[in-house]
Design brief:
InterPro entries: KH_dom-like_a/b, OsmC/Ohr_fam, OsmC/Ohrsf. Helix 1 crosses helix 2. This protein has 2 domains: about 30 residues, no CATH class; about 110 residues, K homology (KH) domain (GMP Synthetase, Chain A, domain 3, 2-Layer Sandwich). Strands 1-2-3 form a 3-stranded antiparallel beta sheet, with no helix packed on it. Strands 4-5-6 form a 3-stranded mixed beta sheet, covered by helices on one side. The protein is about 35% helix and about 30% strand. With about 150 residues, it is an alpha+beta fold. It is elongated, with a radius of gyration of 19 Å. A hairpin with a 7-residue loop joins strand 1 and strand 2. It is built from 4 helices and 6 strands; from the N terminus they run βββαββααβα.
Length: about 150
């Protein structure tokens, strides 16, 4: 994996990050640190990446478990150390998993597997931060199930 991060100029603290896969994202600092608040802070990007990594795992695991998952959102709240280095000390993941007839034990298992085995980002951050998780299952009755869609098509 490769990436390039380049300071965008002499005034301010904006950086352009480019990934090896060809994507770019702007990062900026807080005004009190010389930034202009034009983009996410680098540590916010770390938190976003961790949420994305874990949500990806949860959806993939539920799909492999033949669950009719329709949506997955993870709300993260984090605390950082007061002194340098200001590492994350606590991170809470709250998952909102939407689907039809989702089994709570399988949602719980998917979250646990992500955080204990598959999500590199949360496992890495777990070395400095206390990680906690919660979830809600939202039944999506607005759309027919895959079985109902296949039956209507016949």
């Amino acid at each position: 994996m490769e990436a390039n991060v380049r300071w965008t100029g002499v005034s301010g603290m904006s950086f352009l990050a480019e990934t090896g896969s060809g994507h770019a994202v702007l990062m900026d600092g807080a005004p009190e640190g010389g930034g202009h608040n034009l983009a996410p802070r680098p540590m916010e990007m770390v938190l976003l990446g961790t949420g994305g990594c874990s949500a990806y795992d949860v959806v993939l695991i539920l799909r492999k478990g033949k669950q009719d998952v329709r949506g997955c959102e993870v709300k993260l709240s984090a605390e950082r150390a007061d002194t340098e280095p200001k590492v994350f000390t606590k991170i809470h993941f709250h998952f909102l998993v939407t689907g039809r007839n989702l089994k709570a034990n399988l949602v719980e298992r998917a979250i646990a597997l992500s955080h204990e085995k598959y999500c590199s980002a949360s496992i890495m951050l777990g070395k400095t931060a206390e990680m906690t998780h919660s979830y809600e299952i939202i039944d999506d009755l607005s759309m027919p199930s895959e079985h109902e869609r296949n039956t209507k098509a016949e």
